[in-house]
Write a structure and sequence with these properties.
Layout (H helix, E strand, L loop, with lengths): L6 E4 L8 E6 L5 E7 L11 H6 E2 L2 E10 L5 E6 L4 E3 L2 E3 L1 H8 L5 E10 L5 E9 L5 H11 L8 E4 L5 E3 L2 E2 L1 H26 L1
Parallel strand pairs: 10-11
Antiparallel strand pairs: 1-2, 2-3, 3-5, 4-5, 5-6, 7-8, 9-10, 12-13
Length: about 200
């Protein structure tokens, strides 16, 4: 058991004594997995990652969990994929999970993009399994998830970009969504300019 005031151990270790899910603060429900350095490497090829990931004998995996009242852990996504929108932390995996519940969504990738003011907004790239509209996605997200996780920008594609066997390329999805958003903003501005 760690006596550090910043973190407390919660639940059972994942790999006996070499892994713990450690929760930040007293009675916090938000946790990050940390592995004992006894079982992993001590160096990264990229030296800048050493300071970020290795601390006090623990390797920070970047996997984020939430603990319910009964002590069960639920994977919420990667710490480095979380973004802030209107002061709320958003994990893209939560949006993905909600939208995958829709019968017309085959695959989805939620990412942050920048709006015209440079603020993060949730956007989704969707591979539909049947015809569906943007409004259907927004309504479904409003009914089944938190309001801060409702996508503000939705695009449909025949296939999501992949970087390996079944692994979605989030960087490419971000690029595609940001480009589509920026193009839409430019077209709107041109139309408004031609009306004056």
């Amino acid at each position: 058991m760690n006596s550090s005031p910043d973190f407390c151990d919660s639940g059972l270790p994942l790999w006996k004594e070499n892994s713990h899910v450690r929760c930040g603060g007293y009675r916090s429900r938000h946790c990050e997995e940390r592995l004992s350095l006894k079982r992993i490497h001590r160096r990264y090829l990229d030296e800048s990652l050493i300071h970020d990931r290795l601390r006090d004998g623990w390797f920070r995996t970047g996997d984020r969990f939430e603990v319910d009242e009964d002590g069960y852990f639920f994977y919420k996504g990667r710490v480095d994929q979380m973004f802030v929108c209107n002061g709320r932390n958003i994990f893209p995996l939560e949006i993905d999970t909600i939208l995958l519940g829709h019968s017309h969504v085959r695959s989805v990738c939620a990412v942050p993009i920048r709006d015209r003011e440079g603020r993060n907004i949730p956007a989704v790239l969707i591979e539909p399994s049947a015809p569906i509209r943007e409004d259907d996605i927004v309504d479904y997200a409003l009914q089944h998830g938190p309001s801060h996780g409702v996508p503000r920008f939705v695009r449909f594609v025949d296939r999501l970009p992949l970087i390996g066997p079944g692994k979605i390329d989030r960087c490419e999805c971000t690029r595609v969504l940001q480009a589509a958003f920026d193009e839409g903003v430019t077209r709107r501005a041109a139309r408004e300019g031609s009306l004056t």
